[in-house]
């Protein structure tokens, strides 16, 4: 099978949670064995909303360390920091100039976030999807693993590549940049909030009890699960749409205990909430233990992580520069005589 190019990224805002791991990074770990994978920490996206400069560098490192702690192998995958490869910002500018404003104004995530920011909404927030398109298109990614909520941004990246760039600026119908496909992983990968089974577990929920962060200490995990929303029924099931919390926690149990959903449903079908929550807590604590240990080692020895990120930058940069140069040339900018690799 031909190796496809894969690119994805997560913003270094807050600590990654169980949803980020089970819904995103765990899948990347599988992909790195079959494909040519690029995983970046998108720090330039993290500053599109107000942020604390004293925390950003730490959170960027922490996010990269968590990629590795979750099993991303820098021998197989290219792990890097978005802002270390300036071609991301540069391509973003070029794409800005060929992207219609109204394509951005109708992005759902922009409308939601801009509603919260009001008159403080930054130009960067509006431009966020173009920067994301640049991230993807620079590497000629074939596949982009993302959650449902990012599908609209991916469609935008496809439209920019196809309609605004390849069709308009390639006179001989050659492809300037590859048109990527989304890779959306199946259900079960969507982890819901502990305080409301109808909402996604999210970094931006102001209530920390709604999520389990990958770095939560065992007693914090136990406390959060103990407090997690339940219902009046006995027995855990996947099948009752009126019981989203039961279904979510049972799915977590199945995923982390390594058994099938059917086995989990069988095992916990008659169980009371108290007994189930105790079991679930231990499964979560056991799953997080090796991640936390590896993360601690990496953060305790910054030289190792810095080497990984520097190597990642060195592998990413030539690929990005070659794409950038093709776009520059297509748009009519004077070539910079790069030695293309
Ligand atoms: P975010 O935390 O929104 O920056 O998302 C980073 C990655 O994690 C994206 O690929 C999301 O689709 C994935 N993700 C975020 N929250 C969840 C969740 N609750 N369940 C599953 N995947 C998630
Ligand atoms: N917007 C994505 C998110 O919030 C993060 C992201 C930025 C991304 N650039 C990307 C994801 C490129 C995939 C590919 O999840």
From TrEMBL:
Q: Where is the signal peptide?
A: none
Residues engaged in binding ATP: 11-13, 19-20, 147-149, 191, 200-204
* EC number(s) stated in the UniProt entry for this protein: 6.1.1.2
- Motif: 'HIGH' region; annotated at 12-20
Query: Taxonomically, which superkingdom?
Result: Bacteria
Q: How does it assemble?
A: Homodimer.
Q: Which NCBIfam families match?
A: trpS
In Swiss-Prot or TrEMBL terms, this protein is called Tryptophan--tRNA ligase
| Annotated source species | Candidatus Synechococcus spongiarum
Source organism phylogeny: Bacteria, Bacillati, Cyanobacteriota, Cyanophyceae, Synechococcales
């Amino acid at each position: 099978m031909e190796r496809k190019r894969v690119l994805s990224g997560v913003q270094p805002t807050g600590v990654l949670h169980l949803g980020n791991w089970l819904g995103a990074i765990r899948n990347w770990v599988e992909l790195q064995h079959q494909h040519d994978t690029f995983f970046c920490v998108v720090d330039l996206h993290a500053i599109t909303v107000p942020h604390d400069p004293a925390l950003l560098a730490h959170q960027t490192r922490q996010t990269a360390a968590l990629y590795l702690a979750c099993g991303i192998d820098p021998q197989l995958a290219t792990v890097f920091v978005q802002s270390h490869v300036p071609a991301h910002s540069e391509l973003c500018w070029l794409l800005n100039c060929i992207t219609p404003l109204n394509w951005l104004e109708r992005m759902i995530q922009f409308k939601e976030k801009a509603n919260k920011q009001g008159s403080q909404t930054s130009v960067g927030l509006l431009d966020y999807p173009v920067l994301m398109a640049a991230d993807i298109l620079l590497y000629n990614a074939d596949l982009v693993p993302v959650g449902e909520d990012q599908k609209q941004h991916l469609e935008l990246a496809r439209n920019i590549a196809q309609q605004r760039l390849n069709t308009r600026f390639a006179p001989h119908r050659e492809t300037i940049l590859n048109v990527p496909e989304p890779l959306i992983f199946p259900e079960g990968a969507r982890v819901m909030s502990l305080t409301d089974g109808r909402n996604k577990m999210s970094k931006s929920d102001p209530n920390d009890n709604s999520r389990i962060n990958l770095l939560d200490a065992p007693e914090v995990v136990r406390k959060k699960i103990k407090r997690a929303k339940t219902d009046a029924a006995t027995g855990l099931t996947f099948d009752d749409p009126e019981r989203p919390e039961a279904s979510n926690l049972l799915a977590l149990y199945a995923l982390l205990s390594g058994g099938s959903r059917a086995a989990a449903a069988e095992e916990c079908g008659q169980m009371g909430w108290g007994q189930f929550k105790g079991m679930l807590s231990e499964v979560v604590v056991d799953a997080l233990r090796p991640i936390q240990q590896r993360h601690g080692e990496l953060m305790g020895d910054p030289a190792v992580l810095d080497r990984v990120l520097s190597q990642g930058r060195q592998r990413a940069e030539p690929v990005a520069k070659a794409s950038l140069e093709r776009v520059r040339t297509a748009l009519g900018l004077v070539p910079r005589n790069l030695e293309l690799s």
